[in-house]
Amino acid sequence: MSDRPTALDDALLAARLCACDPVGLGGMILRGGGDVRDDVVSALQEALPPRAPLRRIPAHVDDDALLGGLDLGATLALGRPVQQRGVLAAADGGVVVLPMVERMADSTAARIAGALDSRAVGDAPVRLVVVALDDGVEDEAPPQALVERLAFRIDLSDWRTPMDMAASPTPENRDSVPAEANGFDPFAVFAGAALALGVESARAPLFALRAARAAATLARRTELTEDDLLLAVRLVLAPRATRFPAQAEPERQAEPDPHASQDRQDDPPPADDGDSTDQDTPEPSIQPPPDDVVLAAALATLPRDVLERIATANGRSAASRARGAGERRESALRGRPLAARAGLPRGGLRLSLIDTLRAAAPWQALRDRGTGPVRIRRADLRIRRFETRAEMLTIFVVDASGSAAAARLAEAKGAVELLLAQAYVKRAHVALLAFRGIAAELLLPPTRSLTRARRALAELPGGGGTPLAAGLSAALDLAETARARGRTPFLVILTDGRGNIAADGSTVRERAQTDAESAARAIGQARIGAAFVDTSARPRPEAARLALAMGARYLPLPRADAAAMHRAVVAVQAA
Span 451-473, mean pLDDT? Predict the structure, then answer.
């Protein structure tokens, strides 16, 4: 039987660490697990002081219920403003549970994150432990504002054997957090491990330090040990890893120099005066845990499938943000509801009755001269607002010139088909534009039809010169047309960056490169998202300069296949 802790063991341990340091750790994200998550929440509440409140906040909560505001019913009944206490203030000193956090609006998550940062809601101090329950599918993720402020991320989807919750005592003094380690700098260890694992968040090493101190408090120790550091790396840094640590090359032992050996033999041995041993021998000191030990502990805790996703740079955190949805746009008729605003219900705008009454209620004592109905003024009118997402259009711009055209077009065809397979659930469109000879040609207009795409991609022309400037200009025109029709364009440029056909059709290489850079700058000035895939066997500076001019992500993929290209595009769109 393996001694490795299960996911539920880690979740229960993280709950006790949060109880030790609720302000410093913030809380945790629990993915999957079903009813077992209730055991984790119960363990957390039991570890907190007696009568600690527990509040559940639905994903669709409004600002008044979350932060507090006007109680409309009581205000209308009493004829004077009556304020209600928000759920965050009511949960002070306790636990806040966020069911289906992947569906929570970014604005709501930002308000909860603000309460965690300021430790207050308005003038009321608030100390919370947040438990976010993630039930999203593969392309859904919790809001990034909460992900950054919660120390632990634990996946309970495949939990096995539960741990005896009574076996882990609750610390008696939660304020006795050790301030120093035993002879080494723990933050330097965590910062180095975070850098090696590709953890970009600056909060992660701080969370790891607070977790290590809380672990020492649980063990009733006044100094940090190597076990505390390894525990913090396993619970805090390992779930945030985005890459494998670079393997250090073994040090080569220098070959002995025979002349140096002979010289040493001729030298007389140093004299022993009897006191040199006591004076020259350094005192023993405590060394920090080796970096390879810390990184090995982090990697050993990651499941096999997580390691595979990290190795392919296609982790869930990146893919979940590339949902095929474009820019956010305000709508008057449909979409996700937003907070109402003042205005007149005309021109297709609809009245928000509840918000109108809420705005008029505080003034009834001044307006009502008897026992008549609610008096509403023009300034009280509120209209409804919604938010929609524009459709995403991914435009592949492929260099179809030269001897390697067939291979590049085959890669583009496979990547287009992979993206189209997800178009039905992501509301995404795909287009293909190829340039060769002296001009660019739109081979596949924007479409979501996989059958139409395969028919258009069956036979693609190749060979001839490289009119790179014409290809970039045609891509800009297609992107601007898509934007005018309400879509969000994203360009994927596949070329080696070395054009030899200028915009006027001449074959002057210097002019062709200048025209290509001008077209690239036009794309950058239009603020169109783009990824530049360098397909040359050896990446050259021309492609990097073009990517910089258009503000695109530069991806040197000389031997990329369709799957690798698809992963790279998804990762760039998610960034």
Answer: 77
